[in-house]
Amino acid sequence: MKSEYINQFIGKICTVLTRPLNRDFKQENPETYPEQIFHYFMGRVIGVDDHGMLMEQITTPERLKSYFFFHSVVAIAEEQILNPVNPIHAQEINDIKTANESMRQEIDKIKQSPPQKPIVLGEVNADGQFINPQNMSNLSDEMEEKFGK
Less Cβ around it within 10 Å: N or C end of the chain? Predict the structure, then answer.
């Protein structure tokens, strides 16, 4: 049975987070995680029933539709719609563009900088201990040196 709150999303642009199906965690490497933990979809919610919700894509002329069963939905979030004609929204749009450009420049700087040596916290030893206390201490000293206390 659906919650009465779900009806608040009808007609609104939302992002829906879902659980991926058929994940085999035994085969995945936890260091690289080749698959996302959640999948997300954005569109306009056009209907809700006891089993799920119907959403239409707003970015395609065909207005393709998708149905999401509630048992796979993790979260639904209403999205803010910015209207460039509204001066307040226009300023927000400009701020977002400026922030994105700054972030791109920062990423470019990082890409161009020489690679840093990897931090090795430890390896599993005969006692089953993973983290080397001396390496942790060195890392702590390095962080204090770079960023202060």
Answer: C
